[in-house]
Design a protein that fits this description.
With 146 residues, the protein is α+β, with helices and mostly antiparallel strands. The chain is 25% helix and 37% strand. It contains three helices and eight strands, in the order E-E-E-E-H-E-E-E-E-H-H. The chain has helices spanning 58-65, 111-126, 134-145; strands at residues 2-4, 8-15, 28-35, 49-52, 71-77, 83-90, 93-100, 103-110. Strands 1-2-3-4 form a four-stranded antiparallel beta sheet, with helices on one face. Helix 1 runs antiparallel to helix 2 (111-126) and helix 1 crosses helix 3 (134-145). The radius of gyration is 15 Å and the shape is globular.
Amino acid sequence: MRLFGRESAHTLEVGPHRRGASFMGVQVVTIESAGVLPDGSGYDWANKLTVQLTPEEMPLATAVLMNLSALARFGQHGPERDKFVELRRQEGGLVLVTGQGGTVHAVPVKAGVLYYLLSLFCRAMARGLPSGSVAEVLTLVKTAHG
């Protein structure tokens, strides 16, 4: 999935966690972020920032996507522990922010696109459930945050 903003863009992909062994079979979302090129002709993917959520962070991020929580911020990522991901609800959707050091990439996600982002997260988590059901993921996240 690709999300584009004026100053930054994100790509999101589902896959196994970098630790290798899966956490109960759950897959995670990896986010690659890039700022806009100085000439405005595209995004600087050659200098992208990559942050991978952990299996333990996936339900909290999904809760924000479901509008059960207003904010989820995950820090201490990367070898230097200086990367972060933040999902923050705002009027009309949410904003997905990644950063490292002084570099921050924020992209607003409108409500219509939020549906697909929620679907991506749920499909990743469903891979670890016996039923493989997105409905089961939604029920578990809602119950855990209710």
